[in-house]
Design brief:
mainly alpha; 5 helices; 83% helix; 0% strand
Length: 138
């Protein structure tokens, strides 16, 4: 049981580090596209829905979905690795990430389209489980 809890915790922190690291890398590689979009989104969230100046870019939202998929697979793998291949750790981690994804959807609801919220939150559990399966088959 302790290994499962440690796996979930490690997977969660691994997800956070990989997510924010991925965003920073993409912002550095594509400063005028990804970086500017991120800054405009942050400003919109800080200034409220009534503030003008942010329009979601479909290509960049799709990049977020791909990044979320990759990071979730890696986090599920890490959770399973720490948990000794236990399948429950990636599943629990997936639900924790889903809760975090729903919180993010609430915060960003006025700024991005519904399809993004649905897809992003829907991939979290399956991708995390897939990462856990990669560990159990390796």
């Amino acid at each position: 049981m302790v290994r499962i809890v440690l796996g979930v915790i490690a997977g969660f922190f691994g997800w956070m580090v990989a997510w924010f690291g991925g965003e920073k890398i993409l912002s550095a590689i594509l400063p005028e596209a990804f970086g500017a979009h991120q800054r405009a989104f942050q400003a919109a969230v800080e200034n409220g829905p009534g503030a003008a100046g942010f329009t979601a870019d479909t290509k960049l939202l799709l990049m977020h979905i791909v990044l979320g998929s990759i990071v979730s697979v890696l986090a599920g793998f890490l959770a399973a690795l720490i948990a000794g291949g236990n399948k429950r750790a990636p599943l629990i981690l997936g639900f924790v990430l889903l809760a975090l994804g729903l919180l993010k959807a609430v915060v960003s609801w006025p700024y991005v389209p519904l399809w993004y919220h649905i897809i992003f939150t829907a991939i979290l559990i399956p991708m995390t489980i897939l990462g856990g399966k990669l560990k159990t088959t390796a």
